[in-house]
Amino acid sequence: FNFRKICLYICIKNMVLYVDRDISSSCVKKDVLKDKMDDLYEEVLFAILHNIGCNNNEVMMQQQREDQLNHLCQVFHMSPEKHKVLLSNAIVEMAPEKRLKVEIVEAKDLKSKDSTRLPNAYIALFLKSAPEDKHYTNMKQGTCNPEWEEHFYLSLYDDVLSDTLMLEVWDFEHKNNKTGTLQRVKSFRKLVKDFTSTSMNAKTDDMLIGTATIPLRSITSTGMTMLYSLDKPNKIKKQGVIKLRIAFSVQKKERKDDCDFIEKQQELLKMLLLYEQGTLKISEQWCNNWSIQSEAILNQYRTHGGLSHILNTLCEWCVYSHTEVPLALEVFNKLLKVLAKPIQQQALNNKEEIMFWNGAVNVLFKCFDVIHRQVQDSKMLKELQESLHIISTISSFVIPEGFVLFPQNTYTYLYDSDKHKDTDKDIHNVLTLTIQSACTLWFNQIQQNVCTKNDISEGLSKDEANLKLMICIIQKVTSFLQESVQNVNPIFVKVVQLSYTSIMYEEYEKMVYDYVKPKVDDFCMSLKDLKPEEDCSALITLFELYLEIQKLYNLGKSIQEESYNAADCIYKSSKSLKDYHEWFVSGIKHWLDLTAVKAKRIVIKAIDMDDFKTVTDDVQYSTSATDALAMFVQIKSFWEGLAWPDPEQNYTFITKIIRDIYECYKVYAESILQRLELYEDFTKWCVAINTIQYMSESLEALAKSIGDDCVMKMKRSREEIEGCKATIQAIIDNNICIVNGEVIKIIHNLALKLVPLIRKAFADDDNSYYKKSNRTTFRRASFSGLRHSFMTFTNNNPVVCIKINDYRTVINKLESILDVLHKALSTYYFIRIKSAVLKEISKLVSELIQSGLAKGRPTSFYASTLETLDALCDAFDYDIKDEEVAKSGKDQEEDDKVQLEQVRDVLKLHALETGDLIHKYHLERLEQQELSRDTPYGVLTVRCRLLATYLRIEIIHAKNLVPIDKNDACNPFIKVTLLPIDKFNGVDKCTTRSKTRTVFPLFDEKFIVKLSEKQLQINDAIICFSVKHKDYLGNQNLAQTFMRLSEVSKDSCNVELTHLALMRPLLNGDAFKALEHRQDDKRAKDFLKKIYSVKDDNRNKFTQLKRTLSLRHSMLKKGH
User: Fold this and answer.
1) Which of 102, 138, 107, 133 is nearest to 211 (CA)?
2) Which three-class secondary structure state does DSSP give residue 610?
3) pLDDT in tens, 79-133
4) Above 60 in pLDDT, residue 1095?
5) Checking CA distances to 900, which of 171, 500, 738, 835 falls within 20 to 30 Å?
6) DSSP code of 416?
7) How far is 552 from 557, CA to CA, in rounded Å?
8) Which family does it belong to (predicted)?
């Protein structure tokens, strides 16, 4: 216990000793500081009393001097007694010698006196009252814009107000013997005697560029920086301009260095600045606007100490950077403009350089603090611009080695995070980190402000409220970025060449990723339990969030594309919004499924409310089409609004959307078909069909539009893009085919309603046929010329089947129905119904033909049926414009028309007389001959011409005929016949002489046949050349060839040879089959017998023909 007491006593005693020592040390410091302030006060009084820095014209009045003294006393808080003592000390000191301080800064646009080179300029300056005391600058060689930055002190004499400063700018001529002396400062003193001291027109080799005169009475007490034009006698144009800094000064006191005075100058600045702070309003910044007394005191004291303009600026920089007075940043910018050049040229010594950089630490902190704040008005924007100019200027300086420009205790945010630990702390990187730090601060503030608002989540579920909060946060971030792009970023790019918004976006992107993605993932996982009948408002809010993120990402993408520093970020975050759409994939899939179910329900409801009446008189569709199509367009617009960025996923979703749309369309068509079963009115059926057609065309265009937009965004080769287009088109076509199946059912049912009426136009049973008597061509709109009767023949006994009035009733009723369909139905489906009816007519007529052939009906039966068929087809013949046909797809009707035409052609054949049918057979052989290129039966060469009514036939030769005998030869001759034989009765037949044992006969025979005018007008007249083999047992047919009479040349000369391919008779063809059905016709039987005999003869010669063809083939290969 005693030991503890002793220890405690010793500790207390030591603490007392330490406290006493600290108190005595602080007292000493106060005394020293007090002495320094007294010395400073006394020197300032000395400068005021002796009007240092003022010319005689500006000698202060007694009252002005008293104002300055009172102002100084208030600034230093000096007591009157102490003031009197120090004032008396200043009065007794000797007045200083006054001088004129001249700083020659630079010259601009000097005129060269030698056209072969630029001027080598130097300046001579002196007072008019003392021309012998000249001072010279260095020579600046070869430039019109020389820079000197040189100081001169000129002694002033009694009559200062009447004196003038004289400046002469000379162009040094290298021919002068004194060239070597011009490269050194003030080396021209050695050449003073070579110039005339009293005149500007000195006799020298150098050429005068121009002169300037400055009256001393124009120089203010604060000094001035001015541009003066250079003039020259007898020259009107200016010879250039020169920039000077001029002020009155005094002779410096002898000092070891200027450090003591610089410290006093800084102390004076601090005192005056603190005093000026008291005059500022609240939140007002000081802009270097001194009061009159303070400015006069500063100028006089600076002149008293002889500080240069640069050192004085450096003092202001040091004081302003360490003061707590709110200063405008433009003050520092003005100071930097003065200090920039000497710092870059390393004109400052080590102490002065350290002074600048110590101040730069605080100034930069103020600038970065401005960047930390959000720009809300023009004043803050101007402050930001000033701070960036300061940062840009300081970044161009070389930082002294080992100097810490960003200490850790000041810039804590640069050292807080591990990701900044190894980052170089240069100004550029610190600026970037400052922007990132500001973004983090602002994002947290936005989050706090949004979360405190209760009106956003009021009345919403928890998930939807979270989505709304995220939307609000992203909207504010996007808005702030947009404002920055317009206002702030241009300043950053212009001043520091840095994309402010690019750095901001990258930082916001990371924070949005961290804040939004987990919440979106959780919400999308919860959508699995959502059912179509439940409230889907949260799902809609999800896509609102998607759109806001998309807007933010697109803004960031445009920012990055325009960024000046795309690679300038200190680190690249892996948390990018580039794949933001991946967060919503599961939500999109579920939304598409829900949309498909809801769309089908809407379609069914629209059809239930549809009464199948046209919306207006101008359109042909009902209200259900408008409702359903509007829903599909909304789906398309919604998807286009999403603008899904991944083309491959977009393609997958688009194909699903197209399939879902057509699934709804299929449900739509099925529902319409069910509703139509309740109606018998043709008009409602027509409106329903037109509605389906309108939906089909609209949905096809809609689906193609969606698909094309999707495919064009895919980054694939042209072949792959075309393949994707084909896939989408295949999906569309397949679904259209599926839906068209339902439409065809409707059309088929509607067409079947017309078939019973059409059947009444033909016989009621298979044993009847129609016969027409004196009947004119039937027209749909007129029946006045119709003269016909329909009769049936049973066992050759005529019985009336349908009377003329009954037939008219059928046609009139059919016509009225067709008129209703044509007016109420769209052209496309009107044609489709026509096609369906024509198909039924084709089936009916085919049945009649087969029945007639089986019963051996005469040609009149088929003629009557053909006329009835033409009458019915004429009833369906509606005029349709070409453009309308192209749009309506009438090509689909062509197949049915082709089938009907085939049936009509069969009827025409069976309605022909036997002679005409035989000629039809010959025409078919001619057509086959014209189509064939090679023939195994040889070629006949002839020359035919028609002169008036005379037909001249010249048979030249034949080649490659089919051999008959064992010697591979034959005895050919030609027989010429004009067909049809019935119409060329009395015409001489022409037969050539036979040639013996040859397959290459040369005939060279001519025949002239006399024809009548009527015979020349016969259509499809044919010249038949029959090649026959002459034999003792009987002539044999080798081959035949044909030539159209209409193709015979009518030229009297220069008729070319015609090479005709030889052919054997055909045992097929429509005409041949029709002839085979005429078993009771003798002429037909004889003609067929003749053809069959040729066939049997050919069959015997088949082996020989095969051997001959083989021999010919081998000869051709050998080149014979």
Assistant:
1) 107
2) coil
3) 888 888 887 887 777 666 777 888 888 899 888 777 778 888 899 998 888 888 8
4) no
5) 738
6) S
7) 9
8) Belongs to the unc-13 family.
**Sign of the alpha-carbon torsion through 235, 238, 242, 248:** positive
What tokens appear for 42 in the block? 């006394």
Mean of pLDDT values over 758-784:
42
Which superfamily is assigned to 933-1103 in CATH?
C2 domain (2.60.40.150)
Q: In what order do the strands lie in the sheet with 1058-1061?
A: 1002-1010, 950-959, 939-947, 1058-1061
pLDDT at 201 over 70: no
The SS3 assignment for 278 reads: coil
CA angle (69, 70, 75) in 5-degree steps: 95
pTM for the predicted model, two decimal places: 0.59
Q: Determine contact, residues 1041/1062, Cβ cutoff 8 Å.
A: yes
Give the model confidence (pLDDT) of 241-264 as tens digits: 998 888 777 665 554 455 777 888
Contacts of 891 (CB under 8 A, 6+ apart): none
Q: What is the pLDDT of residues 975-1003, one digit of tens each?
A: 999 999 888 888 888 999 999 889 899 99
Distance CA 38, CA 45 (A): 10
Q: What is the pLDDT of residue 22?
A: 47
Q: Rounded distance, CA 459 to CA 467, Å? A: 14
CB contact at 8 A, 919 and 942? no
d(C-alpha 662, C-alpha 737), whole Å? 11
Per DSSP bridges, beta strands 939-947 and 1058-1061 are antiparallel
Could you tell me the two tokens for 227? Answer: 């541009």
User: Strands of 990-991's sheet, edge to edge?
Assistant: 990-991, 972-979, 1022-1029, 1036-1044
Q: Report the C-alpha gap between 852 and 861 in whole angstroms.
A: 8
The token pair that represents 999 in the structure block? 């397959």
pLDDT exceeds cutoff 60 at 400: yes
Distance CA 159, CA 226 (A): 23
Place of tokens 């006399």: 1010
C-alpha span between 942 and 934 (Å, rounded): 18
Beta strands 1036-1044 and 1002-1010 are unpaired
- Cα separation, 451 vs 236, in Å, equals 75
- DSSP secondary structure string, 476-495? HHHHHHHHIIIIIHHHHHHH
φ/ψ of 958, rounded to 5, equals: -135, 155
3-state DSSP assignment of residue 98: strand
Tell me the CA distances in angstroms from 309 to 2, 262, 394, one per residue in order: 71, 12, 20
Average pLDDT over residues 451-474: 78
Report the alpha-carbon distance of residue 688 to residue 620 in Å, rounded.
Answer: 9
The type of residue at 69 is: L
Burial of 920-953, coded b for 16+ CB within 10 Å and e otherwise, reads: bbbbbbbeebeeeeebbbbbbbbbbbbeeeebbb
**Which residues is 607 bridged to in the sheet?**
none
Structure tokens at 1114: 């081998």
User: What is the per-residue pLDDT for 221?
Assistant: 64
Crossing angle of helices 259-277/309-322, nearest 10°? 50
Instruction: Assign 953 a pLDDT band (cuts: 50, 70, 90).
Output: very high
How far is C-alpha 263 from the chain's CA centre? 65
What DSSP character marks residue 527? G
Higher pLDDT, 359 or 47: 359
More confident residue, 251 or 665: 665
Give the fold, CATH level 3, of 98-173+204-250: Immunoglobulin-like (2.60.40)
Task: Convert 252-270 into a string of H (helix), E (strand) and C (coil).
Answer: CCCCCCCHHHHHHHHHHHH
Sign of torsion over alpha carbons 624, 627, 628, 630: positive
What is the pLDDT confidence band of residue 942, given thresholds at 50, 70 and 90? Answer: very high
- pLDDT number for residue 566: 40
Alpha carbons 214 and 226: distance in angstroms, whole number: 10
Distance, first Cα to last Cα, the chain: 148
485-501 average pLDDT score: 89
